[in-house]
Amino acid sequence: MAIEIERKFLVEGDSWRSAVASKKRIRQAYLSNGGKAGVRIRIIDEERAKLTIKSKAKAGVKALSRSEFEYQVPLEDARAMLELRRGLIIDKVRHLVPAGGGRTWEIDVFAGEHEGLVLAEIELGSADEAVTLPEWIGREVTSDPRYSNAALAQGS
Amino acid sequence: MAIEIERKFLVEGDSWRSAVASKKRIRQAYLSNGGKAGVRIRIIDEERAKLTIKSKAKAGVKALSRSEFEYQVPLEDARAMLELRRGLIIDKVRHLVPAGGGRTWEIDVFAGEHEGLVLAEIELGSADEAVTLPEWIGREVTSDPRYSNAALAQGS
User: Where does the signal sequence lie (chains A, B) (predicted)?
Assistant: First the structure.
């Protein structure tokens, strides 16, 4: 079990692209999203797959911390599990950009239903860790439920 | 992925106990039970744990077939995941009794919320495979939604 602390921002412009260290395609969907846990299946570069259980973020001023359990699963299983999804398949390319201090920006460029949306996330050691925001970082949406993966998967 | 065909019966009396080959304690709960899939965490003899994704049985005359994906997970993860459950923790001792023809009866003796309930299940190669029913087998409840693990977990 790991505790995950992350902040999320809208991205403005394309200047971040020159700093990309690596990228991968992600297709994912939720098998469940009610109750206390979200259950997500994710296929990476159509080569490998992961099943993830995430506790729902607690309601409150800063909904930043939650528990996460993640397991590798066979690609064939994952493809079949996508058929058991609730809501949409999210299709995006995730770009990694070094953020300094050993941190990494994950910049997700969405395709399909969410074409045009670009989000940047950074995982931190604590909710109040200082972060230097590059010029391409736009409005913070960490606490905006419309930009959660779960909400995007519902097509809302 | 495996396709699971099973029939379920109420158990009458204790005469089956002399034929028990092995038994194990099972504690389990559902993380999710809506949509097209049930997500179950199961702890066996407090020694090992499994995470299982089952597609919901199709509505129809015989709701016997469904897909199942199962993964070993760390015991510590499983115990934490029980806290993310929806509904009750099911606590039961599962007894295995040889059924002939290479098949096995699984006889679940429930504790806690369902104290007094005893169910026998048998997994078959096809929905119309013949089964010899021992004298301790009572009413068939395969298609009775009240005896599904999901319904029992809801306390209904």
Answer: none
- Inter-chain residue contact A1 with B71, CB threshold 8 Å: no
**Contact A36/B at CB under 8 A:** yes
Does the beta-carbon distance from B84 to A53 stay under 8 Å?
A: yes
Residues with pLDDT less than 70, chain A:
1-4, 57-66, 156
Q: Work out the burial of residue A96: count CB atoms within 10 Å of its CB; fewer than 13 is exposed, 13-18 middle, 19 or more buried.
A: middle
Q: Is B3 on the interface with A (CB under 8 A)?
A: no
Q: Does A31 contact B34 at a Cβ distance shorter than 8 Å? A: no
Helix (H, G, I), strand (E, B) or coil at B145: helix
Using one digit for the tens of pLDDT, what is the confidence trace for B93-144?
A: 999 999 988 999 999 999 999 999 999 999 998 878 888 999 999 999 999 9
Contacts for B14 with CB less than 8 Å, ≥ 6 apart = B136
B65 lies within 8 A of chain A by CB:
no
Answer whether A87's CB lies under 8 Å from A153's CB. yes
The number of folded domains in chain A is 1
**Strand, helix or coil at B87?**
strand
Calculate ∠ Cα A126-A129-A131, nearest 5°: 135
Check CB contact of A2 with chain B, cutoff 8 Å: no
Task: Name the residue range of residue B22's domain.
Answer: 2-153
* ipTM summary value: 0.76
Alpha-helical segments (H) within A83-148: none
H or E stretch at A48? strand A48-55
Mean pLDDT computed over every residue of chain B: 89
Name residues 66-85 of chain A within 8 A of B (Cβ): 67, 69, 71, 73, 76-77, 80-81, 83-85
**A86 to B35: CB separation less than 8 angstroms, yes or no:** yes
- Residue B20 belongs to domain with CATH number: 2.40.320.10
